[in-house]
Amino acid sequence: xxxxxxxxxxxxxxxxxxxxxxxxxxxxxxxxxxxxxxxxxxxxxxxxxxxxxxxxxxxxxxxxxxxxxxxxxxxxxxxxxxxxxxxxxxxxxxxxxxxxxxxxxxxxxxxxxxxxxxxxxxxxxxxxxxxxxxxxxxxxxxxxxxxxxxxxxxxxxxxxxxxxxxxxxxxxxxxxxxxxxxxxxxxxxxxxxxxxxxxxxxxxxxxxxxxxxxxxxxxxxxxxxxxxxxxxxxxxxxxxxxxxxxxxxxxxxxxxxxxxxxxxxxxxxxxxxxxxxxxxxxxxxxxxxxxxxxxxxxxxxxxxxxxxxxxxxxxxxx
Amino acid sequence: xxxxxxxxxxxxxxxxxxxxxxxxxxxxxxxxxxxxxxxxxxxxxxxxxxxxxxxxxxxxxxxxxxxxxxxxxxxxxxxxxxxxxxxxxxxxxxxxxxxxxxxxxxxxxxxxxxxxxxxxxxxxxxxxxxxxxxxxxxxxxxxxxxxxxxxxxxxxxxxxxxxxxxxxxxxxxxxxxxxxxxxxxxxxxxxxxxxxxxxxxxxxxxxxxxxxxxxxxxxxxxxxxxxxxxxxxxxxxxxxxxxxxxxxxxxxxxxxxxxxxxxxxxxxxxxxxxxxxxxxxxxxxxxxxxxxxxxxxxxxxxxxxxxxxxxxxxxxxx
Amino acid sequence: xxxxxxxxxxxxxxxxxxxxxxxxxxxxxxxxxxxxxxxxxxxxxxxxxxxxxxxxxxxxxxxxxxxxxxxxxxxxxxxxxxxxxxxxxxxxxxxxxxxxxxxxxxxxxxxxxxxxxxxxxxxxxxxxxxxxxxxxxxxxxxxxxxxxxxxxxxxxxxxxxxxxxxxxxxxxxxxxxxxxxxxxxxxxxxxxxxxxxxxxxxxxxxxxxxxxxxxxxxxxxxxxxxxxxxxxxxxxxxxxxxxxxxxxxxxxxxxxxxxxxxxxxxxxxxxxxxxxxxxxxxxxxxxxxxxxxxxxxxxxxxxxxxxxxxxxxxxxxx
Amino acid sequence: xxxxxxxxxxxxxxxxxxxxxxxxxxxxxxxxxxxxxxxxxxxxxxxxxxxxxxxxxxxxxxxxxxxxxxxxxxxxxxxxxxxxxxxxxxxxxxxxxxxxxxxxxxxxxxxxxxxxxxxxxxxxxxxxxxxxxxxxxxxxxxxxxxxxxxxxxxxxxxxxxxxxxxxxxxxxxxxxxxxxxxxxxxxxxxxxxxxxxxxxxxxxxxxxxxxxxxxxxxxxxxxxxxxxxxxxxxxxxxxxxxxxxxxxxxxxxxxxxxxxxxxxxxxxxxxxxxxxxxxxxxxxxxxxxxxxxxxxxxxxxxxxxxxxxxxxxxxxxx
Lengths: 318, 318, 318, 318
Known about the structure:
The structure is a homotetramer. By secondary structure, the first copy, chain A, is of the alpha/beta class.
């Protein structure tokens, strides 16, 4: 039996796990991400891998990180949370992590995990949408992660949905992730609270009576309790999710969309309106098969599991 | 030397050609498309192929048609111009056109031609945008036409660019092809003429003094003469083209966009504003390589050449 | 009994009538408008007035014209259909039409007629919306026509309803009259025909099989027959009408909106969705009286009747 | 010499002043507004008036309040900050404040003050835009406050500027005051901080390092220091202000727009882009006189001064 190690580098914490051939996580180590310090981050990665390898025979290591990974799977071009800019991460780690080592975009890794072990199993084309603070995207075509020409494909969250729409961190306006993401959820709720403290009363209460500190989890909790304002915000966000999926389906014609990430825990609050909008807005509906829209199955460990499995696959091929 | 025959089924005419291994068309036959009559269309296809085969040894035949071709490359799911609905076209033609025979979406065929012989030669990922009445899309990934899960991928013209925007023939609103296509060009000019016959004077004149009969070629001619109103319409359309390309680049990260079709003859009138908007609107600009935007090189025969070459490739593999 | 003469200068014809104190038209003369020739137009006006005066004792004359009439009610600042630019029309006509003479904006005249004799009778504030090719607006406040500081008030049709919306003849984009007017009606129908000849089949047929020559009356006829596409166009236009009325009500708080002009003949096709949208979109609904929305009662003679009555009122006061 | 008392009921404080015939405030009293308690608010009003009357011979009293005052100038239909709903305020106060007493909308009162003593002096039609948390509107036509049919006119802030735009406290979407007001200023800055803490760094610092607590004054201070992000927010808000003014000018044709309220202290930061957009977007520019756009001169006491002067005028007429 061949084990592999996956490491997920997030904005706030590093999670590493030993993963078997069925995608099961056998052991884990966690660290806080050391701010924007490149060397300290590399130290932490090396440390958790060394610890896990002391307990398991896991030759291949896959590292998943938010940001743009070059097509060589060795260089981080840019990372929004971390200080890497054109960083040769694989080389920097090679002497401390001997053996097969790859760097992977975290949303690509999550898409791979869902393709191999989750909601996209066996599908010819899987598009995975990870709803976190923003939108992460990944695609698996005929059993291969799609990376584009330069390694930076599947940034679906930065497709323009609304011309001259809301300002995005990427410098553009109207990006999809400004309308369907954890950040959008919290912002819509705060905007409602700003114009109607009455309508947003329950969410304001859950936010400790400070309307400006309403967060995504606050909206989710209020919606689950049946708060009409929170439900309406989810309904609206679900529709934006469906609009984007319909555009993606026009271009990519996948067999299945897998919706993952923290927001996907809201599940049917989000997916019902998303499916309705998608089906009502799919070009050529009635003359073509319609892609399924499924909730991701691997939860928060999808990135870690996918990175490990991609590393194992890479090791077998080399 | 191996020859192949490509047949391009358009809304108004059928063009068939014998194509060599370098993409050169050696011989051609043309017919008018017999309206919406399925049998008569099939007769015309069989007839031109038989005539060309009487003059050349061309074993493989590829047929390119607008519409949705199933992943089996044998069945037409739907065609906007012709009466085919779930039509098993390959089987219907097999006894009259013996030998290797494939059916292909015309924009896919054109994309393949540009990849093999034109502006996308050798690129790892080529996205081809064919600007005709609407927008046709095709993509070649690592030397293979991308077809999606069900054969109907790359309908980029039906990505939503403007929520609740202009009504499209597909039943949705705001599709990209309602803002960047020959149809959009003529419509914008007619709308201008409707509100200001002064501003649109030259285009009205070129349309035989009937503002409602301004066509795409009229706008192109006026723009080439330097008419300010026609130039502004091209500028605006070029910007919409660039917006759509920027969204595609976010998702697909190609090495090159190839812009073909009748409108591409307008060339820099359209491509200059498109490139500017694309480069200004690409997410992550500054941290990633930027795809090239090129004019197609194969002209109106791209579909025919691509269909023939795909048929030859198919024949070699089977 | 005091009679007065009203003259309505339209883009295509001149209508003059003798009007009694109850707004009844006793006698009429009609001429074709002599194109854009200022002198010939003045000749025609003088001629019809002279003819009517030969038959009736009607001392006061009111002339209603599309365009901007200065606050002195003597000068035409600008007329869209005619060649008047800063034209001292009253002086030019004074020696040929002796006696009290005023020039009035045609939509102001129509508003006055509806206030005195029609659907706005006795109301403290009447806003009149005249739906022709564009939108004409007039307002009567406490028994006086509202003219603004410079005589050019009530151009409601050029309030912006849609930022960066459809191009208007006035040079701006998104003006109300680009969404609710005879021109908008025909354009929407032609646009539909352009993308779906199937959906627009009945209107195309009524237009003599030339989709580009669908007119407002064609859409109205098709809608009356129950054609779903024409009905949807009216529904959509009615909603735009209601949106604009809601914005006007926020600013002007009238007692009644009177909807006149050619399009108002479509009546409930237009007014039902307009009323629904207005009532659903009125700010402060529930805490304030809601203005009525009524169809005009004076029909195509409203402008003429109003011009005559305003001239009589003016003569009495001087 | 005749004095009058004006009382301005704000959301947080009550200000009362003795005003002479030249609009000069001779004496003042202030109280905190007693929350949403109707009786306590009435007590506070009676108390300040009684105190001022003990020191001055001021027979007429005008009370200005945010909200909808019926045309009788005696009843508060609705107030957003206070608990009045269909409240007969004049009758409730009459026995405690003997003598001439009127209730007036605060923005109407401010418009009157600017007409009588400020930037709109002597103009035939004055439109006053008060930029506070929202937008207050008032209009003076030929020396009379315009009230509409039911007393609730000039709610310009609730004209729709953006169809399906931002949610407003009034229940609609896209109201002007959601794009040009103190609330909009703070919200835009917080939104920027939410997507780019780098761009909004100075404003975040001024807000005590809590991006969600950026306020209007914070943005104003940063803009005065030259902070590019704050300047861009003012530029954008100024353009929205200009768009709304252009629509108002189309309908109302005033001689002058007077821009008052707290935001007007930002002065040229706001008025330069507003004037540019207004002049560039005015329908018929070139063929008509263009209204002036001026900063209000009476500052925060405009409402109080206007209410007092309207009461004096009312007393003289009765």
